Amino acid sequence: MRGRGEPRAVVFDVDGTLVDSTYLHTVAWWEALRQHDRLVPAAELHRAIGLPAQELLTRLLGEADYAELGAAVSAAHGTLYGQWHDRLRAFDRVPELLRTLAGRGWRVVLATSAKGGDLAALRRAIGADDAIDALTSAEDVEHGKPAPEPVRAALDLVGVAPESARFVGDSVWDVYAATAAGVACLGVCTGGTSRAELTEAGAVAVYDSPAALLSALDAGPLRD
User: Fold this and answer.
1) Can you name one GO molecular function term for this protein (predicted)?
2) What confidence tier does 138 reach under pLDDT thresholds 50, 70, 90?
């Protein structure tokens, strides 16, 4: 239990949680694989979104194909996804959600596997840097979600204990990572993962969208 005066934090996944990008990544991976004569159903790709690129490709192609094609496919994905940078959009009321939480004393942290130009584009889409206390990216951790390292790294940046934190994500990989780090996870359905899947993975509460989470702040796990 959090003691009086101890800091608290909300850690947010970004792709599919705050920014409407999950299906753009799905299409970019689909096309990148097609360019290298690997035809993977979009549904399988969608279910793997949220994993680090190496794990995503190994899961879909196997170790041998990843060793041969992984770098080239990842580069193609980056080029294809980069075409969408200027059209990325945050979900409805995301800036208001982040600023409201910051105003209530929560330290707001982003934990994303994005880096470089992708990360800059996501931050522009969110448009609420004034509410964000810290950020971890793929360059800050050795192992991405579902490993707990990104969540732990995010909390270390703001000096918050797991029991005083919440994590918000859109995929089962987010839920697994948060749970492994000892942090309660709130799910949102904006990445295309169902309420039932998020709940079964271990989410303590699930909302249709960031806007729905904002509307429910006073009644859920982020209440004061």
Assistant:
1) hydrolase activity
2) confident
| Residue from 13, 15, 20, 170 carrying the catalytic annotation | 13
What's the angle, vertex CA 12, arms to CA 6 and CA 16, rounded to 5?
A: 170
118 classed as catalytic: no
- Encode pLDDT of 102-122 as tens digits: 999 999 999 998 989 999 999
Q: Are 22 and 46 in contact (CB under 8 A)?
A: yes
Q: How many C-beta atoms lie closer than 10 Å to residue 45's C-beta?
A: 20
Q: Which fold has domain 8-21+89-219?
A: Rossmann fold (3.40.50)
Strand boundaries in 93-221, DSSP class E: 106-111, 134-136, 165-169, 184-188, 205-207
**CATH 3.55.50, domain 22-83, yes or no:** no
Q: How far is CA 9 from CA 6, 14, 155, 217, in A?
A: 10, 16, 7, 14
Per-domain boundaries in the chain: 8-21+89-219, 22-83
